[in-house]
Amino acid sequence: MIEVEFQRGFPGLSLDVAFQAPAGITALFGPSGCGKTTTVNAVAGLLRPDRGRIVLNGRVLFDGRTDLPPQARRIGYVFQDARLFPHLSVARNLRFAARWRRGADADFDRITAMLDLGPLLHRRPATLSGGERQRVAIGRALLSAPELLVMDEPLAALDEARKTEILPWLERLRDEVRLPMLYVSHSVPEVLRLANSVVLMQQGRVRHAGPLTEVLADPALAPLMGAREAGALIAGTVVAREADGLSRVMTAAGPIWLALDRPPGTRLRLRILAHEVILSRAAPQGLSALNALPATVIDIRDGMVQLALGDERMLAQITPRSVQMLDLKAGAACHAIVKSVSVLPS
Ligand SMILES: Nc1ncnc2c1ncn2[C@@H]1O[C@H](COP(=O)(O)OP(=O)(O)OP(=O)(O)O)[C@@H](O)[C@H]1O
Description:
- By secondary structure, the chain is an alpha+beta fold.
- Helix content is 22%, strand content 36%.
- Strands 6-7-8-3-9-10 form a 6-stranded mixed beta sheet, sandwiched between helices.
- Helix 2 runs parallel beside helix 4 (130-143) and helix 4 (130-143) runs parallel beside helix 5 (160-176).
- The chain binds adenosine-5'-triphosphate.
């Protein structure tokens, strides 16, 4: 767990930042110039706050008295450009990061296997693709045995094909390495695919910090991620393939049937946008939509109905006239009819 709280003034912007990030990927998200890079630099020890307190797993990195230098903070940093040593092979770039550590050989084998770096070990950085270079940079950061991984727009310099190539590795990192990771990004698709939590930043301040699912399902916060993005992000697992070819996906909101070809056990993230959900007070009958889930209204605001479905939250975009016709208010029982679901790998 990383605990961050600091202030730092610049002529054009004063930063006043506070959030905590547990294990998993926490995206620092916000418009250009809102202070994302400055924040991760303060955490990594590359920028000195005016005041504050930064604590990693109970260890003070910075406060009024302590100010550990970057190399003593146990933080792995992956920059936009990989910054590998050009004259060293991939293997030597990797070994360099672990050079002082006991147990480094076992880590070398484990991390090389996890990121499938074996075939690249004898190559020089100049002969690698941008995506391969970033994979090596991630491996190098992990080999320093960090307690926190900081990634500042690690995909920003890559073209779409290379981004697509590296995303599954970042997912693997998220699911297999139990580290807190701060991930700076202003790409909504990247955040949706990778993040567990989000720190939403605006003009040097934290507007909200919390689980991604909570941000997307909150009508007040979702617009900060881009108006089109309001909706739910629900975790599910494929449990069965039905006789008619549809897959049954179990979620905390209930079972959802999807036309998918994934084996049972596959974990997914399901994205259900607010404008793809319609509401009905009675259990719907005679509808072509496959998925109608019992729900309870939590709140109605700005044309959005916020719903509870078991432990999950969902949004439905709705006109004031429909709110009136259906007599919807907080606490009302209804059914959420989901017209379409997009599936993100998890
Ligand atoms: N060394 C500095 N000197 C003066 N001002 C600075 C300095 N570093 C950061 N700032 C101020 O902080 C602002 C935020 O910069 P920062 O790079 O953290 O934003 P960002 O959210 O990462 O933006 P982007 O998405 O474009 O990378 C800058 O626009 C600038 O006003």
